[in-house]
Amino acid sequence: MYEFEYHRPGTVADASAAVKSAADGRILAGGMTLLPTLKQRLASPSDLVDLADIAELKGISVAGNEVVIGAMTRHAEVAASADVQSKIPALAQLASHIGDPQVRNRGTLGGSIANNDPAADYPAACLALAATIRTNEREISADDFFTGLFETALSDGEIVTAVSFPVPDKAAYMKFANPASRYALVGVFVAKTGGDVRVAVTGAGSDGVFRVSEMESALAGNFSADAIAGIAVPADGLNADIHASAEYRAHLIGVMARRAVQAAG
Amino acid sequence: MSETGIGAAVRRKEDRRFLTGRGTYVDDINRPNQTWAVIVRSPHAHARIKSIDTSAATAAPGVVAVFTGADMQVGGLPCGWQIHNKDGSPMLEPPHPPLVSDKVRHVGDQVAVVIAETRSQARDAAELVAVDYEMLPAVIDMREAIKGGSLVHDDVPNNTCYDWELGDKAATDEAFAKAAHVTKIDIVNNRLIPNAMEPRAALGEYDAASGDYTLYTTSQNPHVIRLLMGAFVLQIPEHKLRVYAPDVGGGFGSKIFHYAEEAIVTWSAGKLARPVKWVADRSESFQVDAHGRDHVTHAELALDKDGKFLGLKVSTLANMGAYLSTFASSVPTYLYATLLAGVYTTPAVYAEVRAVFTNTGPVDAYRGAGRPEASYLIERLVDRAARETGISQIDIRRRNFIPAEAFPYQTPVALQYDSGDYNATLDEALKRADFDGFAARKAEAAKRGKVRGIGFSTYVEACGIAPSAVAGALGARAGLYESAEIRVHPTGSVTVFTGSHSHGQGHETTFAQIVSEQLGIPFDNVDISHGDTSKVQFGMGTYGSRSLAVGGEAIIRACNKIIDKAKKIAAHVLEASEADIEFKDGQFTVAGTDKKMAFGDVALTAYVPHNFPHETLEPGLDETAFFDPLNFTFPAGCHICEVEVDPDTGVVEVANFTAVDDVGRVINPLIVEGQIHGGVAQGVGQALLEGCVYDADGQLLTGSYMDYCMPRADDLPSINAGTTTTLCKHNTLGVKGCGEVGAIGSPPAVINAVVDALSELGVTDVPMPATPQRVWQAIQAAKTAAAAE
């Protein structure tokens, strides 16, 4: 790890100001990606701005037909939340399968989506549930938020404060884990809200999380696994590595999508 | 049987220390005025070093010294076993300097060492060492390497270290000529990365007043390191060099070998007259701890019309990596081909092995070392032969087993098995595995959309390494005995100094059980000391499941010397003839009388010899024994695995695993079962999860746990482990060894189960590791082939 200046502000405004004024500042949420990167000397930010002391970023609330989760809420808190379990059980289930117990007790929702790892779980939930990402500057729809590999719509000094998830009628997430890292090799989140069905895929896309419109329209007409049994996702544009070829990932998207639809009921 | 004697399930006394964080590992040791070393490693698999500029690093804050290969002109790291080619010429042994000067030969190769006041300063400065490389083409695949296009070592043609053979080629050809059926297989034994929980570490120290060196190191055999480093690399005589391996957090073979870093810190400590410490980070462990396995083999089995094996032909390429590690050359030869008869009466066996250099990290012994490669080959071949001939998996084995009454049994590949009962282990395993219920379990799985399969492995291995005479005749450059000293203290407690080394095996418990039983003294009165060459007389260390069969026997023999001496003392005190003294349960008695003396009283008398006849009876009670075994030991067993495969995803779940092993007499069943569990976990890891992958340029793609898949608790079922027992014939305890059987027996059982499950889909082979992708691809390929027919 290289040396850096460490900041621990008490408000979002101070945090934003600290990042903006640094030569090469980075925001530290749970640190589940950033800290290993620093330890391996793969990054050398001038300043780290730790959000751990900012009370306004924590907690889960239900407002009307939405579940709002603060950006610094840990995965374990989302998994254990009675509100999340009753309103969007698929989201609680997703959170309960991120990483391992250590990761779930340190990692945060805001950190995960701001990092936008192409194999992370939360981006699929945000996209499929048509979530709204709230920042200190604005609100961004999930469709506009995830812009590419490790890329988001966030600007310099902009900090995710919370994510608002509309409560769906039905939803489920099926993850096929990388056997080694247990990140999503392929993860498919399916959500039905009224007549609208969204299918979001993480782990597979070479540009990060994406939606499968052909499956969405088929499921909007007939929300059953059979409705998408014949839909093959093309391997073009999918990731390939030692664990899974693009063809295997394409195949798994179909399997996981059908299983998610079955699980959603 | 006492609660702490031989056969008792005594809880490991060392565990309290480990579980409460009170172990002492090398990284826990810090010496006054200590410096830190960071190794500058090659980022390239193959490149010529044009120049090294250390000026910026030398000037960096806190830097004490920067050394390169030009500075460190010492001997090379030696290889301990000389193999001969088919034509009788010796293998090629290219130089293996601790710091390279001419070219780098694998990613992670040592180029320079930066020594600074703190580890961070050393790391910062290491980034400032500027090495100018001229890139050379990397040779990674063995099948390419033997064509000799690019040479890892300029003076090793075709990258071939040796081309060796074992067995009677003419007799084997003859057997094939009369075969009713020949089964063929092409098989890869996947390369593994050891991943001990504790990364390697080394701390060198030099006392300028005495001229004494000390090396604290993570080793399975500190005396061997003292010999190799002292005599071959640094020319420091034994009496000036102490090597101490304290608590060591797992080795699995990877901590047998003499590594460059040990020599670098010891040599640097002498140059600087300051302690120098190096601790591997996990990335270094992945790159430069010697890897295991890595064979590519074609084999053929000849059978008669009744399914009896007539002959076996094996041709193997074995990867050595870029340099010959300490015991690398012996692994694919005398620890592999000598086992190719397996548990079967195959009368003719011929094997040829080419050892190949590649631009990858060194490969050497890893849990099982050669025997897992042999058992995997034989048991996959037997499984396939059964499928091709229509004989059941059980029948084909029973028809070919060496019968229990045939021991001692001379195989056609050098070894003579002393004891075993292979039908008994198979029977016990079939019972424990509820083989009769398999069909119902398979039908039930099918209702859930899963295909279920069952796989067998009946293996034998050779451990308790080794008789020195045999090893020497086969090219070993060391003896393979073990030593023990029993030091009885004046009040009757005992310290045992053993040349074996415990790095997870539980010696402090098992050895204390043996001594407690042998001397009739309380378990808690026995302490086991190991790992420090300044305390322990000598030792060859722990590997090849040898601690109990060789080290334990040395302890028994030292105990017997103690008893003999104690009888003399008791005879003197009790005024009886030595021949009339009997020893039982810690009491010395005069036969036929009620005169007796407790062990503790004899001990006290030995050290308070007020009226000893000093011309015939020495004071003191302290004895040493060296034991050199007459033969290897031959544990054997039957592993039965049941898997369920999800045909939609290719995911394999191990549903049941039964391991019945004959490890000879069991001293501590708790420790034996733990060893079996650990070995099976590693075997399941090799079969389903673990695979070391380099890309075509020699970059290690599986350089972290993000990509190298270690088995986790939820990858394994509750293991059903049992034992059957035939005693080893050539040690007092009748023990055979249990450290490696789990890893030797299990991989073929797992893969045979996967093939069995997928056979209904037309699949005949799945490579290790059988990852979901590979299983899915095998299913797709079978579907495509079926559609084409």
Secondary structure elements and pairings:
The complex is a heterodimer of chains A (265) and B (789).
Chain A: E1 5-7, H1 12-21, E2 25-28, H2 34-39, E3 47-50, E4 60-63, E5 66-70, H3 75-80, H4 82-87, H5 89-96, H6 101-106, H7 109-115, H8 122-128, E6 132-135, E7 139-141, H9 142-145, E8 146-148, E9 151-152, E10 160-166, E11 170-177, E12 184-193, E13 196-202, E14 210-211, H10 213-221, H11 246-264
Parallel strand pairs in A: 1-3, 2-3
Antiparallel strand pairs in A: 4-5, 5-10, 6-7, 6-10, 8-9, 11-12, 12-13, 13-14
Chain B: H1 15-19, E1 35-41, E2 47-53, H2 55-58, E3 63-68, E4 103-104, E5 110-116, H3 119-126, E6 130-135, H4 142-145, E7 160-167, H5 169-177, E8 181-189, E9 201-207, E10 212-217, H6 222-233, E11 241-244, H7 260-272, E12 276-279, H8 282-288, E13 295-303, E14 309-321, E15 348-357, H9 371-389, H10 393-400, E16 409-410, E17 416-417, H11 422-432, H12 438-447, E18 451-460, H13 468-473, E19 482-488, E20 494-498, H14 507-519, E21 526-529, H15 547-573, E22 581-584, E23 587-590, E24 596-598, H16 599-607, E25 622-627, E26 636-645, E27 652-662, H17 669-689, E28 720-723, H18 741-758, H19 772-788
Parallel strand pairs in B: 1-12, 10-11, 14-15, 20-21, 27-28
Antiparallel strand pairs in B: 1-5, 2-4, 2-6, 3-5, 7-15, 8-13, 9-10, 9-12, 13-14, 16-17, 18-26, 19-20, 19-25, 22-23, 23-24, 26-27
